[in-house]
């Protein structure tokens, strides 16, 4: 980036240390104020590791071709390459926009600085005492989570801008941080231990597509993709051949009615059942890649599987009164797949939340989203059932975008109370430690209740979690001139900085 900025003719190009951020600047060098765009390049410890480089394909689809990582290409109208959206593409867009201003010779009353770091949310490790003692009286003895910001502010004591934004994926107007939490939806199935069709294993992972590994590869680009492939393994030792046939036939019929079967030629079936000895496996592939913050646009393989298990168990006479797996399957299907429809179900439509609170009336933005088994960044399937204990436990990413505390409280209370009625429960991780780290003007009195979670906005790096209003974007908590570290600015503060008066 030093060479590129220099070749583009930027009059000021600075890199303090060879392994840290670079900035380019235009404008009157004597101007007392500076505005800044902050972005990140590829992480040398994560993005450009040998393991990651080996996963990249060239324009012909060949895996691991030397140089493929650094060779973007256009195919069928889409641009493929490292950081096209997050964050090399926006970084280049910002740099070239500044170059256009420079070339046009427009008068500027402030300097414009473009800072390009080499890390996003992490860093290379704990900075050494030698690396910090020269610049600070107390060395930084832990690994800063926002390494570029730390190096800019603390290591080199650079000038703080009067205003700034991050050119990361999108360029939105920020009105506040979204609250998020990931409780576990859980149920004990231990009472099923001696019954036919009891669950012995359940996993979720990346959907498969015959002849096309793209969806599997996408898993390494985001930690927030929904679970799009699921497998459920049942013990059918206590079931005769007629019962097994009825179970499989009911699943096949339900999948066919939904259009999931039969599979199109040369494609991976979306639903498969196989029996090997006394073990029956149900496999679901949705053939769709979606991100966790927008589950309403996705197809959740775990939800599909629970719906199909409900149909199969019903066909062999199981009821919610005599089988816990049937109760769990019915509950999940009712919450997220009622009448065979997803979409708005992932906004809490069937959780007793008033219809007026499902979406923001002014712009249609979902107020709450529920992504069951959200979050994956590995092709290795993730287990969500422990046979030894009979514990079924599924993480559920919940994001709150409510504008008022009253609306948020009403909606989350409804959702919180709905799960026990379906025979499943969700356990909320304690937030006491988080509250000690992040001061906020609206502190919940008890972090053990999910009802108060949306009132606790915590700083996040943004990225895909903030696909509507990216959290922490623009004025990142503790990283701007108005707010000290570990203090989260209020929404009104952010608006005032963008719209004075």
Short characterization:
The chain has 501 residues and is of the alpha+beta class. It contains twelve helices and 18 strands. The strands form four sheets. Strands 8, 9, 14, 16, 17 and 18 form a six-stranded antiparallel beta sheet that branches. Strands 1-2-6-3-7 form a five-stranded mixed beta sheet. A five-stranded antiparallel beta sheet has the order 12-13-11-10-15.
Rg is 26 Å
Please state the average pLDDT score.
Answer: 77
Globally, the shape reads elongated
Q: How many beta-strand segments? A: 18
Supply the helix-strand structural class: alpha+beta
- How many domains, as an integer? 2
Distinct helical segment count:
12
Q: Can you offer a commentary on this structure?
A:
It is built from twelve helices and 18 strands. It is α+β, with helices and mostly antiparallel strands. It has two domains: 2-177 and 475-498, Aminopeptidase; 186-400, 2-Layer Sandwich (Alpha-Beta Plaits). The strands form four sheets. Strands 8, 9, 14, 16, 17 and 18 form a six-stranded antiparallel beta sheet that branches. A hairpin with a 2-residue loop joins strand 12 and strand 13. The longest helix has 17 residues, at 88-104. The two termini are 38 Å apart. The model is unreliable at 426-501 (pLDDT under 50).
């Amino acid at each position: 980036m030093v060479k590129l900025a220099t070749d583009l003719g930027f009059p000021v190009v600075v890199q303090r240390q060879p392994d840290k951020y670079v900035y380019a600047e235009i404008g009157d060098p004597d101007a007392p104020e500076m505005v800044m765009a902050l972005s990140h390049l590829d992480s040398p410890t994560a993005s450009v590791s040998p393991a990651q480089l080996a996963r990249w394909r060239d324009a012909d689809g060949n895996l691991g071709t030397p140089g493929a990582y650094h060779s973007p290409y256009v195919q069928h109208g889409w641009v493929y390459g490292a950081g096209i959206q997050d964050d090399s593409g926006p970084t280049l867009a910002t740099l070239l926009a500044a170059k256009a201003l420079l070339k046009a010779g427009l008068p500027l009353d402030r300097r414009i600085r473009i800072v390009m770091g080499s890390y996003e949310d992490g860093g290379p490790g704990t900075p050494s005492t030698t690396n910090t003692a020269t610049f600070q009286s107390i060395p930084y003895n832990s690994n800063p989570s926002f390494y570029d910001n730390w190096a800019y502010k603390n290591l080199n004591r650079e000038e703080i801008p009067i205003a700034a934004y991050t050119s990361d994926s999108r360029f939105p107007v920020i009105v506040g941080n979204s609250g998020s939490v990931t409780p576990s939806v859980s149920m004990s199935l231990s009472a099923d231990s001696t019954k036919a069709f009891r669950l012995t294993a359940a996993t979720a992972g990346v959907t498969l597509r015959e002849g096309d590994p793209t969806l599997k590869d996408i898993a390494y680009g985001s930690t927030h993709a929904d679970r799009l492939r699921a497998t459920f393994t049942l013990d059918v030792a206590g079931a005769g051949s007629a019962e097994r046939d009825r179970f499989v036939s009911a699943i096949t019929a339900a999948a066919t009615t939904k259009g999931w079967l039969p599979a199109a030629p040369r494609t991976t079936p979306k639903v498969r059942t196989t029996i090997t000895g006394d073990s029956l496996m149900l496999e679901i592939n949705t053939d769709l890649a979606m991100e966790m913050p927008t589950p309403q646009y996705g197809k959740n393989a775990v939800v599909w599987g629970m719906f199909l298990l409900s149909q199969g168990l019903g066909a062999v006479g199981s009821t919610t009164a005599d089988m816990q797996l049937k109760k769990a399957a019915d509950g999940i299907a009712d919450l997220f797949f009622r009448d065979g429809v997803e979409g708005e179900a992932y906004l809490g439509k069937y959780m007793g939340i008033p219809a007026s609170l499902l979406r923001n009336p002014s712009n249609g933005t979902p107020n709450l989203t529920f992504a069951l088994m959200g979050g994956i960044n590995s092709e290795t399937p993730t287990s969500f059932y422990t046979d030894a204990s009979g514990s079924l436990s599924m993480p559920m990413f919940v994001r709150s975008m409510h504008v008022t505390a009253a609306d948020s409280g009403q909606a989350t209370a409804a959702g919180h109370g709905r799960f026990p009625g379906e025979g499943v429960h969700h356990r909320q991780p304690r937030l006491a430690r988080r509250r000690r780290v992040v001061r906020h003007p609206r502190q919940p009195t008890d972090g053990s209740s999910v009802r108060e979670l949306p009132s606790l906005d915590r700083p996040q790096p943004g990225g895909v979690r903030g696909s509507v209003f990216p959290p922490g974007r623009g004025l990142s908590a503790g990283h701007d001139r108005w707010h000290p570290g570990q203090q989260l600015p209020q929404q009104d503060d952010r608006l005032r900085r963008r719209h004075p008066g």
